[in-house]
Amino acid sequence: MSDPALNDPTELVQLAVDQDACIGAGQCEMLEAETFLLDDDTGIAALTGAGTLPRQRAEDVVDRCPARAISMVDQDDGAGG
Amino acid sequence: MTPTAPINLHDPQSFGSGIPHEAFAEMRANPGLTWTPPSDDTKGFWSVTRHDDLVTVSRDTTTYSSGVGHIQIYDIDEDALEARASMIDMDPPIHTRLRRLVSSAFTPRHVQNYKTSIRHRVQTRLDAVEAAGGGNWVDLVAKPIPIGVICDLMGVPPEDHDYLIGLTDHLVAGTGSETLEPTAYGNTTPLRLLPFNSPAAFAMSNYAAELGERRRVDPQDDLISKLIAAEIDGERLSTDEFANFFRLMIFAGNETTRSSMAHLALHLRQFPEMFEAVRADRSLLGAVADEVIRYASSILYFRRTVTVPTTLAGTDLAVGDKVVMWYCSANFDESEFPNPYEFRIDRPPVPPHVAFGGGGAHFCLGASLARLEISELIDEILDRELALEVGEPTYTESNFVNGIEQLEVTVL
């Protein structure tokens, strides 16, 4: 059963970055400069602040990551999205 | 029945009038992948023309390798692969360790450090166009800006920039049908061991070794100094590894953005209303730069080689099969980009164009730098209200780069 609330594009979702997978392409920082920051020395991405975005923007940034290093964390069970 | 390509994709002349869009549209409509049978100089190969299939190949570096076989359509011997290899010819994890040596210099935020110097280069070149009343846009604008920017980053002294432009021109000639003089630049290496079979690669390696040695002795705040001192698992890059890295950076930072900047002049002519919209709202600069990059599709393809039996789009692939990702087709895939031949500044961020690659380990290292360079050029053109009459392009004869050799402009 799909819950319509899960598809609400304005719902805030928690993001996570897999830093081993990150290749420093910087697409996340380009799209969401308030949420992602690439380290000056390593060029690897990290979350800044709470690391949340409205669902639609979260999906876009997950899709844009060429290394598939960004995931949405399911708040119910904590597993990666 | 396996569909076969309607044109000879291995023949540079098939790209002599720009991207053969009709042929690619036909291939995208074919079921499965499209086959090109063997010819005199290459085994047969599969063409990936749709966006979703291309992304699948690009992201799966285990099944579709860059390190096994060549990344160009034509095959080369094992010793040549070894001699030529830079990180673009490697798979993770070694690829990624090499990439991380330099990636922090190319992040979206970090490239902003170069913004002022890029703008200055742009202004100098547009001053030259205006002073001359026009000329060949490629020589006046598209060539000197990107080579200047990447040379600055690398630490190549300004007096050597023209020399490197000449070398990169000759590198690309190796992808066309022109016969190359084997002893040019004092070359003594068999051409088959040189990237693009080009003697210019020999010269570039020598140049890199000499400059690298200077920076080893007297380090500066540049990428050459960083690379010459870098260690991977406690080992420095060998002379060949360093030279190949240097050549890749110069070529990739130069040829691609040059091509986009050349195509930009055509776009100004063809789609003036889009640029008028950007003139009024400069927050659209990033969007218009990305559309220039999509529309130009400056790298036409890269090839991968299949490492395990697999199936893609219903086509069975065997170990050793050559799979060619046609970026210039996926960027015009009508199922992902509505009205793909329209130049639009309101395309959504997803799906992304694949002019920087289809994702995965080899996503263009210089993507943010390229966007910035092109944005600065457009911004300056709009600031000056530079109006140009733009002639017909002479395309580079190559099935690998969508280059323009000559494009006459007249300042109005």
Reconstruct the topology from this structure.
The complex is a heterodimer of chains A (81) and B (412).
Chain A: E1 12-17, H1 27-31, E2 36-38, E3 45-47, E4 52-54, H2 55-64, E5 70-73
Antiparallel strand pairs in A: 1-4, 1-5, 2-3
Chain B: H1 21-29, E1 34-36, E2 45-48, H2 51-59, E3 64-65, H3 78-84, H4 94-99, H5 108-111, H6 115-132, E4 134-136, H7 137-142, H8 144-154, H9 161-173, H10 199-217, H11 223-229, E5 231-232, E6 235-236, H12 239-270, H13 272-280, H14 285-296, E7 301-306, E8 310-312, E9 315-317, E10 322-326, H15 327-330, H16 367-384, E11 388-390, E12 394-395, E13 404-406, E14 408-411
Parallel strand pairs in B: 2-10
Antiparallel strand pairs in B: 1-2, 3-7, 4-14, 5-6, 7-10, 8-9, 11-14, 12-13
Helix pairs in contact in B: 6-8, 6-16, 8-9, 8-12, 9-10, 9-12, 10-11, 10-12, 12-14, 12-16, 13-16, 14-16
Written overview of the protein:
The complex is a heterodimer of chains A (81) and B (412). With 81 residues, chain A is of the alpha+beta class. Chain A has 2 helices and 5 strands. In chain A, the strands form 2 sheets. Chain A has a 3-stranded antiparallel beta sheet with strand order 4-1-5. Chain A has a two-stranded antiparallel ribbon with strand order 2-3. Chain A is globular and about 35 Å long. The two termini of chain A are 17 Å apart. The model of chain A is unreliable at 77-81 (pLDDT under 50). With 412 residues, chain B is an alpha+beta fold. Chain B has a domain at 54-61 and 78-298 and 354-411: Cytochrome P450 (Cytochrome p450, Orthogonal Bundle). Chain B is built from 16 helices and 14 strands. In chain B, a hairpin with a 2-residue loop joins β5 and β6. Chain B has helices at residues 21-29, 51-59, 78-84, 94-99, 108-111, 115-132, 137-142, 144-154, 161-173, 199-217, 223-229, 239-270, 272-280, 285-296, 327-330, 367-384; strands at residues 34-36, 45-48, 64-65, 134-136, 231-232, 235-236, 301-306, 310-312, 315-317, 322-326, 388-390, 394-395, 404-406, 408-411. The mean pLDDT of chain B is 93. Chain B starts with 20 loop residues before the first helix and ends with a strand. Chain B has a 5-stranded mixed beta sheet with strand order 1-2-10-7-3. A 3-stranded antiparallel beta sheet of chain B has the order 4-14-11. Chain B has a two-stranded antiparallel ribbon with strand order 5-6. The chains are: A alpha+beta (81), B alpha+beta (412).
